[in-house]
Amino acid sequence: MNIKDLEKDTVIKVEDLSKKFTKSLKRSMYYGSIDMARSMLGMQYDSEILRKGEFWALKDISFEVKKGETLGILGLNGSGKSTLLRVLSGIFPPDKGKITINGKVGSLIAVGAGFHPHMSGRENIYLNGVILGMTKNEIKNKFESIVQFAEIDEFLDAPVSTYSSGMRVRLGFAIAIHCEPDILLVDEILSVGDISFRNKSLRYMAEYRNKAQAILFVSHDIEQVRSLCQKAILIDRGQVLHYGDTVETIVKFEELAREERLKQLKRENESHSRDFKIHFDSDYVRFLKIGVEDKNGDETEVLDLKGSLKVVIDFEVKEKLEGLSINLPIVRDDNLDVYCINAFSDLNIKLENIVAGKYRASLYMEKHNLNPGVYTFGTLTFRNSKTFETLAKIKANYVFKVKSNSKVMEKGFIDVDQKWDFIKQ
Amino acid sequence: MKTQKEQTIYYPNYRLKIGFFQTWVIMLKNILKSKELIIELFKRDFFATYRKSLIGISWILISPIVGIISWVLMNATGILNPGDVGVPYPAYVLLGSSLWGLFMGFYTSASDTLNAGIGFINQVKYPHEALLVKQTAQHLANFLITFVINIIVLLLFSIIPDWKIIFFPLLVLPMLFLAAGMGLIISVINVVFPDIPKIVNVVLGFVFYITPIVYSTETNSSFLNKAVELNPLTYLIGGVRDLIIYGQLIYPERFIFVAFISFIFFMFAWRIFFVSEDRVIEKMI
C-alpha cells in the first residue's frame, strides 16, 4: 500500500480494527506462550478467532480522521478507549483490521512515564523527553518553556520524589505536550492538576489544534470534548455505537450513561432483600405499593422528555382519619431533591374523613418537567393533615429514567417551556 | 507542505511479514536512532540507583574487591588444591570467574531487556532494542571496573598480561553474542512463561561446573572431560583467559567455530525477539 491509496487529507484511517484480551491471568499467559512460540517459529497467528476465555476488547472499529480534525472518543469505563489509543500508537498489535497513519504519533497516555524518583526535575525532563522521542537538542531548546509551563522552577533541582503529585503530573504533562507530534493521542489527561492548570492545558490544546495534523481525545469531561472536538466516536463494549457530530455523540453517550446508571441502581435495589424500606408503619396507615405507569397503565421505568408522569401509590387505611396528606420527593440519582409531589397541591381534592379500607392515590402530571436523567423517589410520608402527626414513612426503591429524544444537550435538571420575544427597540 | 510525512501501517502479524534480513536493518536503525534514549536510561539506572546511599557509586568497587579477597584467603588456607595451572591459582580462578561473570551478566541483562522498560513499555511507543543495548552497556560498565581491579591483582601476582590483551574486546564478542541471544529469547519468554527462565538459571548453574574455571582442562574424569569438550563456554571463556595469561588460544579452530555459531545464533535470536515481543507487551501488567 502506498500513500496514494489514502485520500490526500486523511491522517488516520482505521478499518475493521479488532483487538482481543483474555479474562483470566493464567489463560492469558498460556495463550501468550502459544502465540509467542508460533511467532518465534515464523507461523502466523490466528488472530481472528476467539479462543476460550477471550473477548473482543475492540471489535470492528472503523473511522477516519482528516487533516486538522479533533476527534473525541467517548465511552463508559472499560469500553475500550484506552486500548484503542494503545493500538493506534503501536504499543499493542491489532488482531484484525488495519490502521494507516500519516505522520508522527505522540501520545499523552501516561504522564511522567519512566520518571526516576531520585533524579532531579531537570534530569527527569531529559529522561522523559527522550523516552517520548524528542532529541536532546530539542529538549534543550524547549527546556525553559517546559519548566515555565510546569510551574516548577524553584524545585527544578530537587528530586522528583519530593514533588507533590500535582507537580509531578504538571511536569509530565509539560514535557509530553512539548513533543509536538503531528498526531496527538490524549487519554484522560486534561483532568489533572488544579483548575488553573487544567484551564491552561485546555487553552494549550485549543491552540495546538491549529498546529497538529490531528488530535484524538479521550475524556469523560463532556464540556471538554464539546469545546475541542469537531467529531466524536462513542464506544461501548469495544464497539462503535455512534460516530459523527460531537453534540449528537455526546447526547448518545449521556443516554448510554443514564441507561447504565439505571441498571446499576436497579441492581443495587435487587441486592436489598426488599424493594422498599419502611421506616415505620403505624396503626393508621399501611403502605402497599408504589409505581410509575405509562399511558396504558403498565408499570414503566422510562419517561419521555417533555412527557407526562403518572405515579400510583397503593395503601391501606386501618382506622378512620380526619385528614391525610401524602408527600413524595423526586430525587435525582446524585441525591439532589428536584421537587416534591404532594396531595396538598391539588386544591380540588379534599382528603378528609377517610374511612378504613384500601386506597389508590394516583398523580398525573401532563408534563413532569424533568430533564433527561435517572431519578428515584425520596421518602414517601403519610401525615395526618390536621394534627401533622406522621403516620407512615417509606423509602421506596423505585428507579426511573427520563430519556432524551432531542439532538441537543439539555443542561440543568428542570425542563421549562420558554417563549421568547425578540424586538428591536 | 514540507516533505512527505512518514506513513505507518499496522495490521495483524505485520512483523512476521517483514523479511528476515530486513529485521536486522530495522533493529540496527532503531538502535542508532535511540542512542540518546540509551544514554539517558543508562544514566538513570547506573548512577541514580546509588543516589540515596552514603558512599554512592563506590559500591560498584566493593563487591569485586571482596570477591578477590575471599579467593586470595581461600588459596592461602590451602582449601583449594587445583593441580598445576601454570600460574598462581587465585589469578587463574579470578580471571576465569570474572569472565564467567561477564557471560552471565550479558545473559542476565539481556534477559531483563523487556523488564527494564516496565512502567512505560505499555504507555509509550519506542524501540525496545534500545533496552538491550542499555542493559548490556550497564553490565559492561560494571565489568570494566571489576576487570581493571583484576588486572591490578594479576600484576600483584607478577603476571604481566600478554600484549595480545588488546584483542580482548574482540574476543569477548562471541560470548556477548551467545549470552545476548539467549537473553533476548528468555526476556520474551519470561513475560508469559516465567518458569522457563528459572529452569535456564538452574541449568546455567550446572554449566559453571563443566566449564574449566575453578579447575584446569586436564581432569581425571572422562565424563567431565567430554562435557567440558562439548561445552561452548570452554572455548569462549577459556579462550579469552588463556589469551590473557598464556598469550595464546589453545584451541583456535574450535574458538572460531563456536564464535561463528554464536554469531549466527544471535542473529536468529534477534529476529525471534523482533517477531514475538509485540505479542507479549500487552501481558506486561
Give a verbal description of the structure.
The complex is a heterodimer of chains A (425) and B (285). Chain A contains eight helices and 22 strands. Chain A has two domains: 3-259, P-loop containing nucleotide triphosphate hydrolases (Rossmann fold, 3-Layer(aba) Sandwich), CATH 3.40.50.300; 276-403, abc- transporter (atp binding component) like domain (Coagulation Factor XIII, Chain A, domain 1). The N and C termini of chain A lie far apart (64 Å). Chain A is 27% helix and 34% strand. By secondary structure, chain A is of the alpha+beta class. In chain A, the strands form five sheets. In chain A, strands 10, 12, 15, 16, 19, 20, 21 and 22 form an eight-stranded mixed β-sheet that branches. In chain A, strands 5-6-7-3-8-9 form a six-stranded mixed β-sheet, sandwiched between helices. A three-stranded antiparallel β-sheet of chain A has the order 2-1-4. In chain A, β15 (325-332) and β16 (337-342) form a beta hairpin. The model of chain A has no long low-confidence stretch (mean pLDDT 86). By secondary structure, chain B is mostly helical. Chain B has one domain (20-49, 58-283). Chain B has helices at residues 20-33, 35-46, 59-77, 89-111, 129-156, 168-192, 195-209, 222-230, 232-246, 252-280; one strand at 7-10. The longest helix of chain B is centred in the last third of the chain and has 29 residues, at 252-280. The mean pLDDT of chain B is 82. Chains A and B meet through α1, β4 and α3 of A and β1, α2, α6 and α10 of B. β4 of chain A pairs antiparallel with β1 of chain B, so a sheet runs across the interface.
